[in-house]
Known about the structure:
By secondary structure, the chain is α+β, with helices and mostly antiparallel strands. Helix content is 51%, strand content 22%. It contains five helices and six strands. A hairpin with a 4-residue loop joins strand 3 (77-82) and strand 4 (87-92). The chain is elongated and about 75 Å long.
Amino acid sequence: MNVEKRLNLKLGKMKTLFSTLVIILAMSFSFGQNAATVKSAKDLTAIKETGKGSIILPSNLTKADVEAKSKYYTLYFTVDFDERSKVATINMVDNNERSRQVIVRFLAACEVQTIDVAGESVHRDQLFERYLK
């Protein structure tokens, strides 16, 4: 009987460990999916140069999501979002550094963690310094 209790205790610990690992893997997978994409760095630098550029947002975002999140930033820029292609076209209202910094906040609101810029993964917080300043 004593051996049986120890075996049940070990099995219970193994189930808990396995469940914890599954949860951690699921969470890391879901965070990895929150990446935006830019075909080339020029799509970002165009925002600085011309006041207009595009970013492909994560596939889980809908037109309603993007409209709800972008409505807070209309003093700085507007966002035209094509739900089929997931391309968000950013049109600056006043194209200055302060306004371009707010793009990072918009991406945070969209839960974007990283931006794939022509194959290079750039964290959201580095985007302004590298491409928009």
